[in-house]
Amino acid sequence: MNGAGAAFILDNKNEIILSVGNKELITPNMIEMVKQNSDNNIKNVDSIDIILTTLSSYNNKFTYVSAVPNSVYMKEINQMRLYTIFWAAIMMIAGFMLSVLFAKKNTKPINNLVKQLQNYSNHDITNYNNELDFIAQTTLAALSETHYIRKTMQDYLPLLQNGLISKLLQGNNLDIEQFDSIMEISGLNLNKAHFLVIIVGLEVEKGMELKLEPHLAKFAAINILSEMLQKICNIYICDFGLDTFTILINSDMDDEFPETLIYVLSQSVEYVSKNLAIHLTCGVSTIRQTLEEIHEAHNEAQLAYEYCHYNTRGSIQYYDDINISTYKYYYPFEEEMRLINYVKNGNKAKVQETIHSIININYTKTTLPLPLARCLFFDIMSTALKIVHEVGIDSWDAFDKDPASLLTSCENIDDMEKTLYDILDVLCDKTAEKRDEYHEKLRKDILEYINQNYHNPDLSLSTIASVFHFTPSYISRFLKEYVGVNFTEYLREQRINKSLQYIMNTNLAISEIAEKVGYTSSIVFIRNFKKIHGITPGEMRLRKGIPDSSTTFI
Question: What is the pLDDT of residue 325?
Fold first, then answer.
């Protein structure tokens, strides 16, 4: 025991037998306390707090006593307390430094993300509380833009599906694996086992009074036939012109399907002829089983339609019933339709190219006698007469002599080819004049409709196509050709131009202005406005000195 405390042994008479340590602590008062109370406790002995520890022996009646000043214990405890406080402070400082380090390290990716969003995002977002608020605003803007893109894609899905079906029918370099993925995106579902193609021609019955306008009557006839067929199979319609369209049927066809199809087509043709005074001429292919064979089915339907078109209009012709051996020269319906379209479009170069191709096929591979050659040219001449009738040219006054007489007076193939070129060249000019008048009126009507309905957020190509009874693809091509911009660009310009009046002359909030000009999202409106004018609507107001009451930061 060190000198700070003492230990001693008392006999049964309470006399000290042995003692060690600081003997000054061993006083009569301490011995008296040991005699009176043997409990281990802190005792005040001679004004000194002492921790007494006693142990009695029952055998020899000795008492063993340990006396240590309380200050000795407290010194150790205080020292431990100081150590504890010191190390606790060290740990707190280290923890704080580690927290700062980890916080800086963990927020670095967020800061990098914010910088990347600021560099690559098209959204003009400058009013935000912190990085997370910026990310939230950017995410909401991106979701809004995604919704807008998705809606736009939905508007153009009919165009995409129409293009895919056209490619299937034409069969040019068809990659089935790639085609399947595109079909999935467009929502085109061709997973049934069998395919069949029907080409339908529409012709107003002469001498009959229509209950509807011609274009409305034809539109109604297409809808009637489509609804009748949809009751027995899945169908997809592809437009090829104002008076013809192609139906692709995809269904699981049993042995009874051909008879059912014959019945439905017959009922449809009869109903349309009786109620709308329109002849439906149908060419029907054989049943095919793969996507690759759709092109062959289309060729069969074309041949069946051609045969039916030149024999009995307003009827149905099945490819299996055609006696193909009756065809002796090459001038298929597909070539005729192509030639008609070229003449209607005034494309003289393509007209000459098509005529030259037909003549080359007929006179390079085979040698036709002159009478049969004249039949071929009069066949082509009949195509010209159809163009005259469809376009509405009043007479043949543009020619010095009757075109039929001009052809019969030719003595060889070269003369007939040149004469036919001259006749179709004049028709190209005449149809161009008619087409320009019609297209100018249609252009004005479409633009007027857009200008009157720009504030409608649901205004789309499909809406306009429905109003003017054309397909969305035709309206899209028409606007691009005769207005110079596509539908989306023109509608955006009109909406942004209209918004200037509200921006400069009213105190409406930007979100209210966006809604008035047809936008469902102020973010899309601000982005389109900036794309055209280079600044946001709010910045334009500030430059013009107009107070901006908008609560949305722009």
Answer: 39
CA-wise closest residue to 299 among 197, 379, 376: 197
Mean pLDDT per 10-residue interval, the chain, length 554 residues: 70 80 76 70 70 78 80 76 87 84 70 70 69 77 76 69 77 67 71 86 68 72 85 79 80 82 87 82 88 87 72 70 60 85 84 85 60 74 74 62 72 73 83 78 90 88 88 87 86 88 86 87 87 86 69 42
Long-range pairs for 533-541: beta carbons < 8 A, 24 or more residues apart? 533/496, 536/124, 537/499, 537/503, 537/510, 537/513, 538/510, 540/503, 540/504, 541/503, 541/504
CATH among 3.90.550, 3.40.1840, 3.40.50, 1.20.1260 for 6-74: 3.40.1840
| DSSP-assigned letters across all residues of 361-404 | HHHHS----HHHHHHHHHHHHHHHHHHHHHHT---STTSSS-HH
Give the C-alpha separation, 62 to 12, whole Å.
6
pLDDT value of position 66: 81
CA-to-CA distance for 200 and 216, rounded, in angstroms? 17
Q: What is the rounded CA–CA span in Å between residue 245 and residue 258? A: 21
CA distance 214 to 276: 9
- The model's pTM is 0.40
Q: How far apart are CA 318 and CA 316, in angstroms?
A: 7
CA 243 to chain centre: 32
- Looking at residue 177, what is its pLDDT? 67
Domain ranges of the chain: 6-74, 189-323, 333-439
CA distance 214 to 378: 29
Examine domains 6-74 and 189-323 and report if their fold is the same.
Answer: no
Yes or no: domain 189-323 corresponds to CATH 3.30.70.270: yes
The whole-number pLDDT of residue 122 equals: 65
Burial 265-290 (b: 16+ CB within 10 A, else e): beebbeebbeebbbbbbbbbbbbbee
CA distance 135 to 113: 8
Which residue, among 285, 273, 349, has the nearest Cα to 313 in the 3D structure? Answer: 273
The rounded distance, in Å, linking the Cα atoms of 337 and 324 is 20
3-state secondary structure of 56: strand
